[in-house]
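Hey, resending since the last one bounced:
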Amino acid sequence: MSEIEIKKNDFLLLDWEIKMKTSGNILDKTFNDKPIKGEITEPRLVVVGARDLLPYLDEYMIQHKIPQELVLTVPSLDGYGERDPSKIVTVPTRRITSRGFSARLGSIIDMDGRRGKIITSGAGRVRVDFNHPAAGQELEVKLLLRKKVNDPKERIQLLLHRAIPEIPTEEWKVNIGTDSIEIEIPTVVMFLEGIQLKKNKAALEVKRFMPEYTKIIFHEEV
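The structure tokens again:
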């Protein structure tokens, strides 16, 4: 298989492993080194430059070739940033418990759209650290660059699968016109929770990355 240079806006299928370099704690991994029988794993769709990954990784991939395996160290500033003392705040315990969260040391909470970890607790107050767990840490990253996708139909199918992962990529029926795309929705999709939002997300994704198609039409399978 010949190698192809990666450019901005390319559609790629890849896998990755991202872990903290010092501790070895894995933050994100899309493949299993020892797959369990019956387990289904598949490469992820990434549009280069769309920030589907850390911006540093987006830039790093450009000018490399596919397929290949890349292993690199990402500086903390280019990963999840340095630790910010202003993101460590003290709040009343009742503000935590009234939202249904435990106020115990080490508990993870969501507050005002941010996720944090309780680092001290006592005297009716807790201190919450809203820094990303990997803030201030170098990252060790493995990128498995598997395939560049050029076919418009396959690109659309992959975008649909990313928005509605319950339906395998190859099962999406797509007809492409001059400036329009007709998509047949499998019956099973209509019973999924939040399907209307997922359909809207899928249409927006297609229009964003394939703006030459101005009309996205969904048909229900009969």
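The mean pLDDT is 90.

Sorry for the duplicate.
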